[in-house]
Amino acid sequence: MLGRIVFFLCLPSVLAAQLCKPNAAEGFKVRLSIKTALGDNAYEWNRNQRFLFQAAIAFAMSHHLDLEFNVSNILVCDETPRVSFWFVVTSPDDPSRLVGKESVELAVRASRSRINNILLLNDATLEFIGVLPTLAAPVKPATPSWLIVFGVVIGIIGAGIVFLLVSTVVQKKRKENEVAEEEDDDEEAQMKRMAGNEGICNTSFSECDRNTQM
Amino acid sequence: MGEEKNPGTEERPKWDNKVQYLLTCIGFAVGIGNLWRFPYLCQIYGGGAFLIPYLIALVFQGLPLLYLELAIGQRLRMGSIGVWKNISPMLGGVGIASMVVSFLVSMFYNTIIAWVLWYFFNSFQNPLPWSQCPLNANQTGYSSECEKSTSVNYFWYRETLNITEDIGISGSLQWWMVICLATAWCVIYICFIKGIDSMGKAVYVTATFPYLVLTIFLIRALTLPGATDGLVYLFTPDWEILKKPQVWLDAATQIFFSLSVAFGGLIAFSSYNAERNDCERDALVVGITNSATSLYGSIPIFSILGFKARTNFNTCLEQNILTLTNHFDIAERNMTVENYDQWFDYLNVTHPGDIASLPLRVCDLQNFLDQSASGTGLAFIVFTEAVLEMPGSQVWAVLFFVMLLSLGLSSMFGNVEGVLTPLQELKLVPKWLPHEVLTAIVCLVSFLIGLIFTLGSGNYWVEVFNAYVGSVPLLIIAFCEMVGVAYIYGMKTFSEDIYFMTGRRPNIYWKACWMVISPLMLLVVFVAYVALQAGTYPTYPAWNPNYENFPQTETKEYPKWVFGIIVALVVVPILSIPVVAVYNLIRCGMKKSNANVSGPNPYSNEAFEIETQERNTQSI
């Protein structure tokens, strides 16, 4: 009697040990790079952190398959100092049966960002080997920003060209008016000077010495 | 009496002050090539040892040529066509050749400025667009072309140039490049709108700004990790390399093209000077400043390249560390860059089979330093990658591209001046056409022809123009200039002119250079250059994503029709020299024979003509 009780008590753990092993058909290898992600704020990987991971996976499975998964349904084994391990998911109805790999993958992909946030990691530092991350498309603004800079530059240059051309034309017109005025002024000034003087001296005719030589 | 009015004669424009003139000449000589060609040559030709052939070429070839051009322009007070026609009608073709070369060079040089503008416009984003690969069509991964090469390469070849695989495949006009090219020509136009009045104001900024930015980069670069690796690599002299003739050839051609002689621009600039100006000192200032700038600029460039090599090396090691850590499940951070070698040796001993099967990269710092580049590769690929690693990348990118913009613009001023001034002297332009409209027409025509360079195959065409227009024709023009002044104009007359301008005659060093040493060196360089080019059929590197060794560029031969265009580009500019010479010879011969037949002309008073000529030359 006692022997049977011991046998049945040991069965789950023995079964668990057999269900979860490295390179299991329905299992995934997980690799965490906590120090890379958090630097000085890195937490120590221990039993409690593992519990949190199991809870997160249980959440993801429940959310995706709409069944009630428990932490005990997530089996973890083969932990290494790298912080990498294998895990398998058992069915809530029958703990000796494993949930298929595809379902686990879909569940993890659906709740990936949630799982990342729970563990304070991201797609690169919490790796599920074999599960492709969904890449976020880069943000594309409505007008490419380079067009805006270009618009500013070409606007300044265009304004400058127009301003310079207009000022050249205006200056030329002003000069023409001035030259015309100067020509008129000159004749008037000449006439005034002649009226006040005794006439203009014709140097080729005689020397213009007003005083007679002694 | 009233004022004397001569509405027909326009006063020749002149510089506001000496500083403007010097800055314009320095700006013309100091161009993008000082930054992206000289450090590369220094690096591949044994670092410090390269300075020896470089300085020898400067002293015996560069400075005499420079002095000659500045003196002749200042004395004869005309652009390149007028000057050579004046010296001897048979040399009139030299001026036309200069003008044609300046025109062709300004077209492709402005395309480079358009590329700089494009990168400048794109530097105002966070993150910088060349830092990430775009996703492929169904968003499952990154674009394959980008993944195989790097995001920086992808941005340059695909998003900037949209380059085709072959020079024969033209592709279509890239609209973003067209508007950048239009912007570049508008900038040139606004600086030239009032001739040298507006250009002279612009050079205060474009000639001095690069030095400011270089200093900022120098301070920043010297504080980056790995800077000393780059500097040591650059300046470590390898004296053995001086035995190779290729080094001397490249030093001579570098000095020659760096000083921007034979374009006609320097002659035009010095023609706007006052008559009595010490052009010997000007030539020394411009020449020495140009070389000093090359040296000064190579320090921050190579510090940054050393930083980039060190960063790449660390990244390579960290990738290996990650691979090993994941495979052997070692705890994180146990294996670092510092103790990588010990770990590697230990693992190699304990698990040699595993190590052999892992995709480990070979990380060699020397290898990364050797990945040098020159030209557009340096500016748009290597440097932009380095800028990504520096904190505050946008600021450094903007500064770098504005510096390249200033350098390019100040060189473009000389090129465009080398086209505009002779054009007015050719008397093809009607007098009623205002200067602004002529400048606009020249800019518009250059822009329309330059649209070739905005096609998919545009980069290949820029390479063609760069290699063939800006090389052999210039050598021939410079040789003709030197021989023309030293032997046809006469060293005696030239010495008298210089005595008139500077108050002292040129000493034996200058005379020896002009008459013997420099023409000889030019001849040797020309012959060696042609011999090297003629030896092999010209090829070009093509960016072909379907190439089996992609991302390496595929070496393709130019098709026959492109080879024909290359020959045309080399021959057509210098064709004018023999054509004009022969034409004038025939005309001279006909005149002489006419004079003999008709006898003395009763209407020509030769004594009067000689006397007035002498009086005119004395009073100038």
TrEMBL record, chain B:
Checking Pfam families in the record gives:
SNF
Q: Which GO terms describe its cellular component?
A: plasma membrane
Annotated TM spans: 21-38, 44-68, 89-121, 173-192, 204-227, 247-272, 284-305, 395-416, 437-462, 468-489, 509-532, 561-586
The entry's keywords: Glycoprotein, Membrane, Metal-binding, Sodium, Symport, Transmembrane, Transmembrane helix, Transport
- Its domain of life reads Eukaryota
Which molecular function terms from Gene Ontology are attached? metal ion binding; symporter activity
User: Where, per UniProt, does this protein localize?
Assistant: Membrane
One example of a Gene Ontology biological process annotation = amino acid transport
- Membrane topology type: Multi-pass membrane protein
User: What InterPro entries does UniProt report for this protein, alphabetically?
Assistant: Na/ntran_symport, Neutral_aa_SLC6, SNS_sf
Q: Which organism is it from?
A: Poecilia latipinna (sailfin molly)
Tell me the protein family, please: Belongs to the sodium:neurotransmitter symporter (SNF) (TC 2.A.22) family.
Know the name of this protein? Transporter
